[in-house]
Amino acid sequence: MISPRFAPVVFGFVLSAMMSFIVSGIATFRTVGLTDAFVSLWLGAWLPSWLVAFPVVLVVAPLAQRAVSSLVRV
Fold first, then answer.
1. Is residue 74 in a domain?
2. Is 71 within the bounds of a domain?
3. Nearest to 55 by CA among 4, 20, 5, 3
4. Among 5, 30, 44, 68, which one is most buried in terms of CB atoms within 10 A?
5. How far apart, in Å, do the first and last CA atoms of the chain sit?
């Protein structure tokens, strides 16, 4: 098991993987439709987008948490 102190990084890893997978799939579908090459194009678009999304999530998550804290009554 992974130590709980790594929870924010693991969360960012999983969240960025899921979100970039879904968004790149939608973008690929809108661009090429359901062709025979759809899956390979989708995966080809997903990996580079995930490599960008993961560090972005790690940097932006604390900012988003602060924004939510200022909007939500505790």
1. no
2. no
3. 20
4. 44
5. 32
pTM over 0.85: no
Closest among 11, 23, 3, 1 to 61, alpha carbons compared: 11
C-alpha–C-alpha distance, residues 46 and 53, integer Å: 10
pLDDT digits (tens, 9 = 90+) for 60-70: 999 999 999 99
DSSP characters for 32-73?
H-S-TTHHHHHHHHHHHHHHHHHHHHHHHHHHHHHHHHHHS-
Q: Distance between CA atoms of 17 and 9, rounded to whole angstroms?
A: 12
What domain range includes position 56?
Answer: 19-64
- Token representation of residue 51: 């490599």
Total structural domains in the chain?
1
**Residue 26, domain member (yes or no):** yes
Looking up tokens 């932006």 gives: 60
DSSP 74: -
